Structures are given as structure tokens and as C-alpha cells.
Amino acid sequence: MMALPDRIGRYSRAGSRWVQLLAAGRPDPGVRVFYGHDRVPEPGEPVAGGTAKFQRLATRFPNHPTDFSLLYLGSTWLPRDLGPLLGLARRRGIPLLVNQNGVGYPGWAGSGTEAFNRPLRRILSEAEHVLYQSEFCKRAADEWVGPPAGTWEILHNAVDVDHFTPASRSPDGGPVLLLGGDQYQAYRLELGLQTLAALLPAHRDAQLLVTGRLVAPIEPIVDRLGLGGRVHVLGRYAQGDAPAIFRRAHVLLHTKVNDPCPSLVIEAMACGLPVVYARSGGVPELVGDTGGIGVPHPGGFERDDPPPPEGLADAVSRVLTGLPSYASAARERAVELFALEPWLARHAELFGRFAPR
User: Residue 187, SS3?
Assistant: First the structure.
């Protein structure tokens, strides 16, 4: 929960911004991007979900809250004052670009599906151009939100392959699995622990690293499964610390189903970690046939039904058998397809095209 001083500071910044915005007129020519929030996390600060890409973008295209000529919004990081902001942009002829990630669907959003998708429908209907993070994102948005009014393209997330690099040698001991990101869905955390338990008969020294915020206490599950001493909870981490965490593991275990385009996966691949994952969402587009193994499970949007832990454990064992080959292929795929510089260059092209001249 946000602390009171942080909340006061956020509202104060927003109020000051609106005073300046209402006093201004149409924007001058040039590329000045506003990401919808008065503050974008600085490099090195912890980020979650959609904020990571804007943190990277802001190093090349700084955030301009009060004199912007382009409005670039992320579907997973929409501002609280979305309505007034869109109205202002419309009146002043400021183009809207949208980075579209996931959507609400009954399997996880339940009765809140429509409420979740309503603002997404609005931004897609007003955007000049939409960047879908994966082909899966486009299909899901078409089904649950609707088609975009403007132009669109597929642009997968990116990773700094000069920062996210493999370890000089494979970690000792283990094997060590990494359950990365935030554990905000209970099934993801429990399935990761169950997979470790299912792996132990074949790999007696297996361990699991767990990062991020936990949706529920982990100790009761660890005790129930007899995993004491094998599970290491690392908490949240900043991008600067991420490569060191990846280098402690042999395999990324990704248990989320229908994940649209997780940066976690391409960051792990850039560090030479093969990925064992629930074969759904946009992850197969990222991992391909060489960067890891996807485990089939019942698909669709009506319920989240992940693969059994035994299936994931078997896939981990198969990856470990050919670990050097999988690790090399994962790194190669990240460098060839998801490097940061081409991603930034594409944004520069789009910003230059749509910014007022």
C-alpha cells in the first residue's frame, strides 16, 4: 500500500501539472513524450510489469508531463486521470500511441473482466497507433476489447543484452530453478513449489529461488511439501540487480498461463537461462523451439488451468540434460530478436512520424 507522504506527493505533482497544462496552448513542434505519469522510475529503481519498458524508454525519450507533444500510454500502467488527459490531447491535436499488453478475461478477472477492459477499449479506440507486445496480445485484445481504430503493429518487449549477460560459468550445485517476477497469483507460487517437489526424485539437490512480492505466506506450503532449506525467497529487485539473480540459476520456471509478453522471460534468456513454461499466451513466441520447453495445458480464457507440476518437472529434467545447448540458444535468440537498440530505434521512428512538425 502506498504510504501517505508518497500519496500526497503524487497528488501534489498531478495538481501542479494540470495547472500548467490548462494554462498552455497547442504544443510546439518536436518530440516530447508524456507517459501519463508525473514520474517514471529512475534507472536502478525497482519496477514491476509495464513500468519497466517506460523506465527504459525514458532514458532515451525523457518524460514531459507539462509540455508534451505525444502521449504514449501503456495498457498496464494507465494514469488515474485518464479521461481528462485523453480529452486534453484530443482538443489540442496531440497524438496518442498505445503499448497494448494483456486484457481482462474471466479466467483471472472473473466478474471484473468488463471493468478491467473498459479503459483499454477507450484508448484503443482513440489511438493513432497501437503497438501490441505479441501476436497473442493482438488476438486477445481483438476478442475481449475490440480492434484498434488506427494503425497497429506487433513489437515484442526488449532487453539490454549488454547488461543482461550469461554467467562466466554455470552455477555450482543444484540444479537451481528461478521463479521470477512478482508472485501475485497464488497458483503460480504453489505450482512452482510443487514442481520443485516433483523434481526431487530425479535431482536430489534441486533448489528454487523465488523473487518479488508474495500473494500469500510461503512457509506453510514449503512445510507441507517438505521443501525446507531448498527454497530461497529473494524479494523485489531492481533492474541493475537482475542479471546477478539470473546468473544464480540454471533454468527459469515460468508458471503463469496466458502471459502476454513477459520481459522476465527475455531477460532470463539474455542471461543464458532456458525457460520451462506453461505453453500459452505470448511466451511461445519468445522462447521458440530452441530456448526452452513449453508444457501444454488446457487453453482458453474461461479459466486459468496450468499444467501439472509433474509435466513441468519432466520438462526441467529434459532441459537439464541438454543444458549447454538450450542455454546457448536462449541467449542467441534474445540477442537476435529482442535487443534493446532496435526497439528504441523503432520508437524513435514512430515518435518522429506522429509528433507535430
Answer: helix
Environment class of 41 (CB within 10 Å of its CB; exposed 0-12, middle 13-18, buried 19+): middle
From residue 9, alpha-carbon distances to 4, 15, 112 in Å are 9, 10, 30
Instruction: Give the span between the Cα atoms of 300 and 303, in whole angstroms.
Output: 7
Task: List residues bridging with 73 in a β-sheet.
Answer: 98
Q: Which three cell numbers stand for residue 329?
A: 540458444
Q: Which residues pair with 207 in a beta bridge?
A: 176
Residue 343 backbone phi and psi in degrees, to 5:
-65, -45
Closest CA to 313 of 212, 228, 203: 203
pTM of this prediction? 0.92
pLDDT in tens, 81-98: 999 999 999 999 999 999
Give me the residues of the chain with pLDDT under 70, please. Answer: 1-9, 11, 48-49
- What phi, psi does 262 have (nearest 5°)? -70, 120
